[in-house]
Amino acid sequence: MNQSLSLYRVFYTVATRGNISKAAEELFISQPAISKSIKKLEEGLNTTLFLRNSRGVELTEEGKLLYQYVQSAFETLKVGEGKLQQITELGMGHLKIGVSTTLCKHILLPYLKKFVSLHPHIKISIECQSSNITLQMLEDHNIDIGLIGQPSNKQNVAFYPLGEIEDIFVATKQYIDNVKVRNPKHSKNILNYSALMILDKENLTRQYVEGYLRKNNLELSHVLEVSSMDLLIEFATIGLGAACVIKEFVQPHLTEGSLIHLPLDVPIPKRTIGFAHTKTSTLSHTTLEFVDFFQKEGGMVD
């Protein structure tokens, strides 16, 4: 656009009113200033836009053509202003969240009900994918924010911590007793003689646990790879083996005794869970409000 928006505002107002004095009153500027702006626009476009008559001014054929487009543009701007006003007054917005199925079920969902009740006009889209895919979607700007474990090698990611989780191995008492019967001389090393169940290699949790094992010169053997944390928990409860799970998510099972925590000589270090976004992205008011809500609510579900 070669001409300034202010000149088109003057043109639009004069054309709509059909009178320079009325346009001056509406725009709170003098009539000479109106005439000067029209002349400047006509010179810039190298055409005559208005003809004077006894009642005021009327558009030339060229002016009528331009007015169609200027009118459409200003009406579109008016609609946009109205939408922004709705967002401000009603708290409207669209929030796109990336999260793994496990974190969605155990951390995100318990808080969403209250957040939605407080902000009923915010549209929420949830992409349930692995944390690795969530990170990629953040980099591609396909989501606004991701709920993930804190990445250790992503320099371009800003992170808002919510709390810590701990990876542990669990099994049923019956399974532990059966392993001890089969290996009475090694009853203290249950994991070495267990069928170990763990998430697949594409999962960040699996990668984190394997990093711990390498650091402590331990190896996984007799491994059963499972695609989700919920399945790991279910398989463990039916006595299929010892599962690597997140302690906070199986706490009810540990409390009631249906699963037993298998201690390690060196516990797996806790991990931090939180919201992430790329440092190059600008968070919307809706996204900031969402993160602030989670942090004020206490972050992690007990």
Question: Can you offer a commentary on this structure?
Answer:
With 302 residues, this protein is α/β, with parallel strands linked by helices. The chain has helices at 5-17, 20-27, 31-45, 61-90, 101-118, 131-139, 173-182, 204-215, 229-237, 251-256, 285-296, and strands spanning 50-53, 56-59, 93-99, 122-128, 145-149, 157-165, 167-171, 196-199, 223-226, 242-246, 260-262, 271-278. The strands form three sheets. Strands 4-3-5-12-6 form a five-stranded mixed beta sheet, with helices on both faces. Strands 9-8-10-7-11 form a five-stranded mixed beta sheet, with helices on both faces. A two-stranded antiparallel ribbon has the order 1-2. Strand 1 (50-53) and strand 2 (56-59) form a beta hairpin. Helix 1 packs across helix 3 (31-45), helix 1 packs across helix 4 and helix 2 (20-27) packs across helix 3 (31-45). The protein is rod-shaped and about 110 Å long. The chain starts with a helix and ends in a 6-residue tail after the last helix. The model has no long low-confidence stretch (mean pLDDT 85).
Distance between the termini: 57 Å
The number of distinct β-strands equals 12
Order of adjacent strands in the largest pleated sheet: 4-3-5-12-6
Query: Helicity, in percent?
Result: 40-55%
Main beta-sheet annotation: 5 strands, mixed
Average pLDDT rating: 85
Structural class: alpha/beta
Rg, please?
Answer: 32 Å
**Coarse morphology:** rod-shaped
Order of helices and strands: HHHEEHEHEHEEEHEHEHEHEEH
Low-confidence stretches: none
**Proportion of residues in β-strands:** 15-25%
